[in-house]
Amino acid sequence: MLRTLAVATLIVASLVASPGRTEMSSVFGNTVVSRYPDGGWVRHWFNPDGSYAAQFSDGRRLAARWSVAGEQICLSNMRPNMLIPRFCTRMVEAEVGETWQSRDPLGRRVQNVLVAGRNP
Questions:
Q1: The pairing of beta strand 41-46 with beta strand 99-103
Q2: Contacts for 111-116 with beta carbons within 8 Å, 24 or more apart?
Q3: Helix, strand or coil for residue 77?
Q4: What is the mean pLDDT of each run of 10 residues along the chain (120 residues)?
Q5: How far apart are alpha carbons 71 and 68 in whole angstroms?
Q6: How big is the chain by its Cα radius of gyration, in Å?
Q7: What is the pLDDT of residue 22?
Q8: What is the pTM assigned to this prediction?
């Protein structure tokens, strides 16, 4: 469960284009893939209706609602339930094909890429 929270937090922390739904269009219809040094990965999908889904390399799935709050993007209503009911973080720009490094909430390095299309 801790890794699930970390990855959900990571994607929120390292993905989105800018403060409004209309400006997040580079994310809609595409897949964010987060890769861990140990070979694990997570695929993340944001939808225009505010829904969010993630699939982990071990088969686990996570669902949530996302929203914009000022300069932040927030996840809430996470299922399965997380230790925290809502998590918000600053948004970062990303376009299809771009890669960027970040750290998850546990301090682990992650390589992210925004991939064209919905890759299951």
A1: unpaired
A2: 111/34, 111/35, 112/10, 112/11, 112/14, 112/15, 112/32, 112/33, 112/34, 112/35, 113/32, 113/33, 113/35, 114/15, 114/26, 114/27, 114/30, 114/31, 114/32, 115/30, 115/31, 115/32, 115/33, 116/30
A3: strand
A4: 45 44 74 94 93 94 92 85 75 84 72 88
A5: 7
A6: 13
A7: 47
A8: 0.76
Cβ–Cβ contacts within 10 Å for residue 81, how many?
Answer: 9
Enclosing H/E stretch for 67: strand 61-69
Tokens of 29: 């219809």
Q: What's 100's DSSP letter?
A: E
What is the bridge-based pairing of β-strands 72-79 and 31-35?
A: unpaired
Helices (H), 1-120: 2-14
End-to-end CA distance of the chain: 21
Residue with tokens 């925004």: 114
Judge whether 26 and 96 are in contact, CB under 8 Å. Answer: yes
